[in-house]
Amino acid sequence: MTINNNGNNGHRPAVVWLNDLQRAKLEGMTGTKPKVTIQDLLEKINDPNAPEQALIPSSPRSVESCFRLGVDPLELQYHPIAFYKYTGDTDEIAKLRYEKNEQVRRERVKSLIELRKRLVDDGWTGEYGRSLVSAKKSPGSDSGGGGRGPSSATMVERERQRLDILKKRQERELAQIVSHEYQRKELADKQQRKVDALEARTAEMARQKAEHDREWLSKQRDIELARVQADRELEREAKRGAEERYRREREIQRVKEEQERMMKKESYS
Predict the structure, then answer these.
(1) Which residues span the domain enclosing 163?
(2) For labeling, which of 63, 141, 266, 269 is most exposed (least CB within 10 Å)?
(3) Which residues fall within 8 angstroms of residue 228, CB to CB, at 6 or more apart?
């Protein structure tokens, strides 16, 4: 049996597994193949890699037990947690699905073993003549059990109903758990998206501030450079002015000295 990782429960149509059991029962009764009981299959059904055909009993009583309880023998096969992890599932959901299915599987195996034992105790063989004799020897096996308690048919029906109720309850509980987990995950994802959006906005604001700071610093450097250049130009202008004043003063002094020298010369002549 295969369960696809998309939520499919993987149940085979009843007509398919009923035909498989009928064929296996016929092979067991005719000697085509050895009779294999549920007990014989315990090791194989606990092997997740066992082939499907190796999981079908051929013993008439084991086949009859599957018939009466409505159990497809392939659904008795053990599967690990990874088998129950569908696409998009968390590990927690897969574990819960595994635990629910494993509980139902174990209950089915237990019920099949108990029913087969009851058939053995009642002398049921699957052969019409012998089963009728066994029925006469077992007063509690028919509906007229003389007040000794419920008949075997009634007990089997009750067990089948119990397994069916258990299975449906487990499916409902699992569906609720999965739904709650998906809601929790959706809420967590929504909250994470908000956090991511806030972090993105914060990062964008930080980027814009850093860009603004870089532009401001660049402008400040330009202003400072312009101020330094202006100060240097003023210093150069002041130096040139001082040099020009000094030159004029020297020229005036030279002219004055030359005039004084000429005046002295004239006074001696």
Answers:
(1) 14-200
(2) 269
(3) none
Tell me what pLDDT residue 217 has: 94
In a domain, 268, yes or no: no
In a domain, 147, yes or no: yes
User: CB-based contacts of 149: which residues, under 8 Å, 6+ apart?
Assistant: 140
Say whether pLDDT at 7 is over 80. no
Residue tagged 């929504």 (tokens): 190
Residue 218 included in any domain: no
Tokens found for residue 182: 């998906």
Concatenating the DSSP letter of every residue in 124-167 gives: --S-HHHHHHHHHH-GGGSS--TTSS--HHHHHHHHHHHHHHHH
CA angle, 234 then 236 then 241, to 5°: 95
Inside any domain, residue 186: yes
Looking at the structure of the chain, the number of domains it has is 1
On whether the pTM is more than 0.70, the answer is no
Q: Name which of 72, 70, 76 is nearest 24 in CA terms.
A: 72
